[in-house]
Amino acid sequence: MYRRFLLLLKAKKPPAVSLLFCSEFIRTSCSATTFPKLCYNSLSAHATKIQTSAKLLASTALDVTLASAKSTTAAMFNLQQSHGGISPRDSAAMRDCVEELGDSVDQIRQSIDEMHASKGGADFEMMISDVQTWVSAALTDETTCNDGFAGKGTAADGEMKTVVRGKIETIGQLTSNALALVNAYATLHH
Q1: What is the pLDDT, as a whole number, of residue 2?
Q2: What is the pLDDT of residue 190?
Q3: CA distance linking residue 39 with residue 25, whole number of Å
Q4: Residue 188 gets which letter from DSSP?
Q5: How far from each other are the two terminal CA atoms of the chain, in whole angstroms?
Q6: How far apart, in whole angstroms, are the C-alpha atoms of residue 77 and residue 97?
Q7: By C-alpha distance, which of 174, 154, 159 is closest to 63?
Q8: Closest residue by Cα to residue 182 from 71, 80, 65, 104
Q9: Element holding 82 (H helix, E strand)
Q10: Of 184, 163, 179, which Cα lies nearest the Cα of 65?
Q11: Whole-angstrom Cα distance, residue 186 to residue 118?
């Protein structure tokens, strides 16, 4: 498999639309992330869009992360609304988490907008620095949200805590992967 990948790279005109070639590019790129399996699984469906572009790979990772963060924020808001019998501490943790996730969504959206607006050139360094800062801040917000459900002795110790932490951990992992791919894209320009 690796040998075939190398042969494709050496070809004068690589079959850019080849699903195998695009998928292998994603797999190889994802191997440098902290959560390579999640990275590949979340991005491989976009292989023909990404092809072999590090910029499109990073942008698509941000798009996937944004979709997941928006979906989880909505689910958290609904969960908060539907659990009227939870303790004041858990209610406050849910409220804070929804706010943190909202901030995370905004930061990821800013990153995507900045990546799409970038034309490269002299502004590249500033653009990539902004994107790295915003994605890092989003990761911090997600961690803060998850930390709100740490500890014992609350209603959140049960099913709600499991659901919330699972969703937040997935967003954190997607965000971590997106940041790694943004960093890899930045490295190509140094």
Answers
A1: 41
A2: 65
A3: 12
A4: H
A5: 30
A6: 9
A7: 174
A8: 65
A9: helix 54-82
A10: 179
A11: 13
**CA 164, CA 104: separation in Å to the nearest integer?**
16
Rounded Cα distance between 90 and 80, Å, is: 9
Enter the DSSP assignment of 1.
-
pLDDT for res 157: 52
Are the CB atoms for 66 and 178 separated by under 8 Å?
Answer: no
Give the torsion sign (CA, 111, 183, 30, 102). Answer: negative
Interval 142-164: pLDDT, tens: 998 888 877 655 544 567 778 78
pLDDT score of 16 more than 50 = no
The whole-angstrom distance between residue 82's C-alpha and the CA centroid of its chain comes to 27
Complete domains list, the chain, with CATH: 54-188 (1.20.140.40)
- C-alpha 131/C-alpha 107 separation (Å) is 9
Residue entry with tokens 């990772």? 61
CB 23 within 8 A of CB 44: yes
> Using one digit for the tens of pLDDT, what is the confidence trace for 74-125?
988 887 777 666 777 777 888 899 999 999 999 999 999 999 887 777 789 8
